[in-house]
Structure formats: C-alpha cells, structure tokens
Amino acid sequence: MTDTVQVDEIGRIDKREAPAVATAEYRRFADLLRGLEADEWTKPTDCPGWDVRTMVAHVVGAAEANTVRKSLRETRRGKKVATEIGGELVDGMNEVQIRDRAGVPPNELVARLEQAAPTAIEFRRRIPGPMRLMRIPAPFVGKITMGYLVDVVYTRDVWMHRVDVARATGAELVLTAEHDGRVVADAVAEWADRHGKPFTLVLEGPAGGAYAKGSGGEELRLDAVEFCRIVSGRGAGAGLLETKVVF
Question: Based on the number of CB atoms within 10 Å of its own CB, is 56 exposed (0-12), middle (13-18) or buried (19 or more)?
Fold first, then answer.
C-alpha cells in the first residue's frame, strides 16, 4: 500500500532540479513524436483548433526562444498578435510560434526540438536573479514569477502536451514514478497551496501517489494523469478539483 504523503512535505521543483526534469521530459516527448505515423500528425488534440502538428510547432517554438533577444522579440510580436486575435499575451505568443513554423515537416520539427532543447534548458538555468523575480501574467492564477515559469511551468507544458499527443493518436504514454510522478507531485503541492483546504487524494497509475493535508476534508480518488488534465483546465472537476494549476 502506498504511504500517504503530507503535501507540506513535498519538496518543490526548483532551479537546481529543473534542468534534469526538463531534459527527461523533452527526451520523452521527442521519443513519442518519432513513433508517430504520417497521418497521426493531423489528428485533433484536446486543445481547440490545434492538431498534433500545430501543438508540436508550439513546443518547438517555445524551445527555440532560447536567447534574451529571441524571447523579447517573441514577446513583442505576441502582444501584437494577441490584440489581433482578441486573446491574452500567451495566446499571441503561441500563435507566433505556430505561424513561424507553418509548413515545417514533422521530421524537421522533431529534429529542431532535439537541437533546441539543451540550449533552452541552459538559457533558462542562467536567467539572472532579478529577472527571475519578475512577475508575469498566467492563466487562472493571476501572476507567477519568471523563475517559476522557466523552472516549472515550461516543463509542465511539454509534459501535458505529451499527454495530449498520446490521447490524440493512441500512442503509448510512457509514465514512471521517478519522472512523471515527480511532475505530478509538484502539481499536487501547488494545487493544495492554491485552495488551502484539507483533503485526502489518491492518484492511481505509475505517476500516482497518496497525498493529504489536515483532516476532515474532501476524499478524492482518480487517475494521476486525469487529475492533471482537470486542474489544467482540460477536464471538468467539482469541489476542490475546480482549483486550477498552470500547465
């Protein structure tokens, strides 16, 4: 039987741990993509308006914005496009990433992701302290620090898009306690901190675990990946599962 972990005891992913987690996730995402058939790149995903190829173009674009100049340029263009499409800054930046890679064939997207990922991880690691403290808008939660974005959210984004691609194509979603369980536990800790209420939570599957805070709260049991889908806004949840986390 899995031991129950008090969420206050979960060490959060930080600057020191983030590069290893990101490296593993980019590798798993690329491995998944290499196994796709040509027709699977046009399958619709859980993100409205995005097929698999569009989703991968976004992930590649985020990885290729791996210098200060590129990042600032993408942000400026994202603001303009956000106004054009009537969305938030993140929507505009996503659209810029996708437009810039329109027509790039799937095999080249995978190759570019593998080339860009190490540089992106190193760039994020080297962002200076004052910049890491800057607060930026984020869906659901208002604002987060730049440090939290580059250490945690970017990797969660790739992880969730790996889930999206696997669901869209029926490909095997490789999950382990060591890697995926760590990503999930960190999301649980943030979710618990955001709602601040007592609960017991049993997450099933290779990435799962048992978590609790206080006593007398909601008792929840569901698949670990589905928990993340719900709190990311991809699925519907009631009670404490209405509390969202940035992915």
Answer: buried
pTM of the predicted model as reported, rounded to 2 decimal places: 0.94
Q: Supply the DSSP symbol for 152.
A: I
CB 56 within 8 Å of CB 102: no
Could you tell me which CATH number the domain at 18-169 has?
Answer: 1.20.120.450
Residues of CATH 1.20.120.450 domain(s) within the chain? 18-169
CA dihedral of 185, 188, 189, 192, whole degrees rounded to 10: -160
| 69-100 tens-digit pLDDT | 898 898 899 899 989 998 888 889 999 999 99
Residue 63: is it exposed, middle or buried by C-beta count within 10 angstroms (0-12/13-18/19+)? buried
Q: How far apart are CA 124 and CA 219, in angstroms?
A: 38
Provide the edge-to-edge strand list for the sheet that holds 4-6: 4-6, 209-213, 199-204, 218-223
Element (H, E) at 66: none
Q: What is the DSSP string of 41-63?
A: GG-B-SSTT-BHHHHHHHHHHHH
Cα–Cα distance, 139 to 157 (Å, whole number) = 12
Q: Evaluate whether 124 touches 14 at the Cβ level (below 8 Å).
A: no
